[in-house]
Structure prediction request, 283 residues.
Amino acid sequence: MAGGISSRMKKPSAVQLNLDAHLIEDADRKTKSMIGVGKDYRPFLDYLLYNARESGYTDIVIVIGEKDNSIKAYYGSKDSDNEFFGLKISYAVQPIPEGRTKPYGTADALWWGLKSRKDWIGKKFTVCNSDNLYSQKALKIMLNSEYPGALIDYNRSALEFDLSRIEKFAITVKNKDGYLIDIIEKPSAEIIQKILIQDGYLGVSMNIFSLDYDLILPILENLEPNPERDEKELPDAVKTLANKIENSVFAFPLSEHVPDLTSKEDIQQVKEYLEKYYYNIKF
Prediction:
């Protein structure tokens, strides 16, 4: 999903940043995933696509915004069947509805993506953000999941962010068999304590899911906007599936960091992460 307007990334930084002009220009003009944080200004999205390819994926749909051309200019100008290092890339455009200043959220992004791929009816797929670098391990778990729905349930203590940022992540609630019951924004201390006792750790969702096309599409079509954000949010759709069909969305526990490119303050940290762990990728 890369159809957002990257509003937080485009805000001026509150701190002094030691970034070259090229990266600042990318951050101000392009969607977040196309910022050239990699070696020789390779865009961030390249590394996610690399992990997807190495994990066994071949067919990729990128949901793009109607006002950003940087992705199509880089990965291929055709609406579908663009070849990119062993991947077949197609696009779905998420529009900004009349009267709004930004798209209708992540559930809406997925809806536009699925509408563009009627050939996926009867199949499962993985959906994720374009501004998080999910590992090959996480992507393989989603690809090989046999459940109607699934998500990676990240151990909150393994995420290498400031505590103030981590505390804003939504936590997951599972039953005793590991199936999702709820995804809670701003949980109370009582709920946190209960989950810690039950699971031994706090799990958070980082918006990577494996879903069944036929089950999730009608939920997306009927989903109401989140009242606080006035957006149709994918976690709400996944929660609806979990509540509609008991034991349908399995939460796979995983303890690892997930690089996140949300604001200008993240750019240097992501650059250093890529230099350390992805210095020799062949793509």
In short: Strands lie at 59-65, 82-84, 87-94, 124-128, 149-155, 171-174, 180-184, 203-212, 249-254. The radius of gyration is 18 Å. The CA atoms of residues 155 and 201 lie 6 Å apart.
